Amino acid sequence: MKLSSVLDPAGSRAPSPGAGGQAGQEAGAGVSGRQRVASLVQRQGVLAVLLLVVLIASFVYPTFATLDNARGVTVQASFLAIVALGMTMVIITGGIDLSVGSVFALGGVLAAWASQWGVLPALLVPLVVCGAIGALNGVLIARVGMAPFIVTLASLLGARGLLLAITDEGATTYLVPKDSAFAELGQGSVWGFGYPILIALALFAAGGVVLQRTSFGQTLFAVGGSSDAAVLMGLPVARVRLTVYLLSGLLAGLAGAINAARLSSGVTIIGVGMELDAIAAVVIGGTLLVGGAGSLSGTLWGVLLLAVIQNLINQIGSLNSSYQSVVSGGFLIVVVVAQRYLARSRRTA
Amino acid sequence: MTTHAPAAPGRSLPRLPGPAWFQEYGVYAAVAALLLFNAFFTEHFLTADNLRTQLIQVAPVVIVALGMALVIGTEGVDLSVGSAMALAAAVLPLYLGYGLVPALLIALLAGAVVGAVNGTLVSVVGLQPIVATLALFVGGRGIALVMADGQLKQIANPDLLALGTGSFLGIPLVVLIAGVLALAVAFLVHRTTFGRQVVAIGGNRPAAALAGLPVKRVLTGVYILCGVLAALAGILATARLTASDPSSLGNLMELSAITAVVVGGTPLSGGSIRVLGTVAGALLMQLLRATLVKHDLPDSTAQIAQAAIIIVAVYVARERRSR
């Protein structure tokens, strides 16, 4: 579990009881056993649920616990994971980014279109355009002071409109040239594990370091905990908030580009509702939507849990895919209600 | 903070419209401007037929947006309205065998249950509205699909068809229903205790609680109303289509409804509800799209234009608040 310890070292932020109680929690002094259990469940509860589901599924469905299936599930999950990585950072600052689904689709189409000129354009074009959309979100939210919900709602529409405009209202599908090295980025693999998985893991490792070991990361938590206090402390609040929306746009665009490489084409009807899947994964992973607390490892387990549920429902076969959303929705309710009560018990204990 | 600044003394000349004017009347001015533009530059736009079509298309959005306006007035948001529509549509054909009225009541009840779950999660459990309603957004459509076996069902009930396509004194029933509901919600907000409590809770929840208002009950009530209105919109859409289609009915409706509310001038931060503005906001978006389509501009342009309007509307609203 080396990766996990980078992503979520012991004593990483959990919602602090009262204001700024981080030091007390890390030392563990004066923290009751009940509080410690609650904190552990809140941070690693999803991992426990994930392991439990995987364990039971391995016994019940022989086709589940195969290497091939594991590869398939994780490749599928890696795109949502990359998007959810950016979303986690946004949500830690107390914001939200509804535009990621549209930006993901836009990134894919741009990448497929630009791939005719080689790998570099195929990556640069989506990153530049999607980064610009993220930056625009960030400017409107951090500098102009508009609500994240509504700004990113508008860019959800705008990015989808842009996507339709460059594909002749969805009539043109751009294909990635067959012999392109860009296609390799989505389809290649190391020991059978596709590049998308490795890219997602590398990004999460880097994100974990940024979040836990840099002043930028610490500022995110401070801004989410109390934006006013962060301003008074002289932290570059506006710049940091702008940066997280920029990152979110870049990551969504990158995920879209890699997905296009994997599918060998820019699919226009993809990514609808992806923002809510990403938010669900982040929330299930224990990051609080009010901001100020959260972890990337939790998000990773949240994404995997959603992916495993989807895979299991496919395995069962007799259930149609509508059960997937029922189960995901159920998980979401259980997790957030449990979080709520755990947070409450920690405060009162 | 939201009251008007008193007019400067000694100023008798008519003042030019400022940001406050646009915040107050901008959405109506925009609707009027669009109609005027179309009167001159678009053929066959200001005809009874076309206006009827536009009104019929916007009616479900208006009905959902009315509920959304109430929720946003409490500083909440309801992402699950599309799922509530789908659920009502899925339930309707299952009970049509018992007669139209029981089936309609049960479909509305389904919306009320969705709202009650949302309301309980928000008021009793204390979840953020966006999380609380996200769960049913994700799961609600799934439940609807499971109930309907994932299938589109044709409905051949003449009474239901009449509800969807009939008209009264030349006005389509769906438009009439939306209009009456708008008046009813306006009355609710401005003339009843419940409406005052909703606005008070949205303005300052701790203060409302200290003043002894039944915060939990009012919040739950607001979400139930929103769910019921969404279910009604789902029923009307189903009646028009003469088919129950839980997989696509109400998709992205939460976005359209929130857009209508926000463009209509209701702040997302709660404490104020503009019912007429919400109706105008929905109309503006509908007319904008129709205008662009009639001028052979593609859907993509319409979406980008809608995005721009949302940003402008919220920017204007922000100007006023910071005064």
Give your account of this protein's structure.
The complex is a heterodimer of chains A (349) and B (323). Chain A has 349 residues and is an all-alpha fold. Chain A has a single domain (61-346), classed as ABC transporter involved in vitamin B12 uptake, BtuC. Chain A has 15 helices and 2 strands. In chain A, helix 5 (100-114) runs parallel beside helix 7 (148-166) and helix 6 packs antiparallel against helix 7. The model of chain A is unreliable at 1-29 (pLDDT under 50). Chain B is an all-alpha fold and 323 residues long. The longest helix of chain B is centred in the last third of the chain and has 27 residues, at 215-241. The relative contact order of chain B is 0.19. Chains A and B meet through helix 7, helix 13 and helix 15 of A and helix 5, helix 11 and helix 13 of B.
Main beta sheet strand tally, sense and closure of chain B: 2 strands, antiparallel
- The total domain count of chain A is 1
Outline of chain B: globular
List the strand order in the largest sheet of chain B: 1-4
Distance between the termini of chain B: 8 Å
Second CATH tier, the architecture of chain A: Orthogonal Bundle
Assembly of the depicted chains:
heterodimer
Coarse structural class of chain B:
mainly alpha
How are the strands of the biggest sheet of chain A laid out side by side? Answer: 1-2
Helix content of chain B: over 70%
Q: pLDDT below 50 for ≥5 consecutive residues: which ranges of chain B?
A: 1-10
| Total of helices of chain A | 15
Features:
heterodimer, A: 349 residues, mainly alpha, ABC transporter involved in vitamin B12 uptake, BtuC, two-stranded antiparallel ribbon, 15 helices, 2 strands, 1% strand, globular, B: 323 residues, 4 strands, 72% helix, disordered N terminus
Chart the SSEs and their pairings.
The complex is a heterodimer of chains A (349) and B (323).
Chain A: H1 2-7, H2 22-27, H3 33-60, H4 67-92, H5 100-114, H6 119-143, H7 148-166, H8 181-187, E1 189-190, E2 193-194, H9 195-213, H10 215-225, H11 227-232, H12 237-263, H13 274-284, H14 296-316, H15 322-348
Antiparallel strand pairs in A: 1-2
Chain B: H1 19-41, H2 48-73, H3 81-95, H4 100-123, H5 129-147, E1 153-154, H6 158-165, E2 167-168, E3 171-172, H7 173-191, H8 193-203, H9 205-210, H10 215-241, E4 243-244, H11 253-263, H12 275-294, H13 299-321
Antiparallel strand pairs in B: 1-4, 2-3
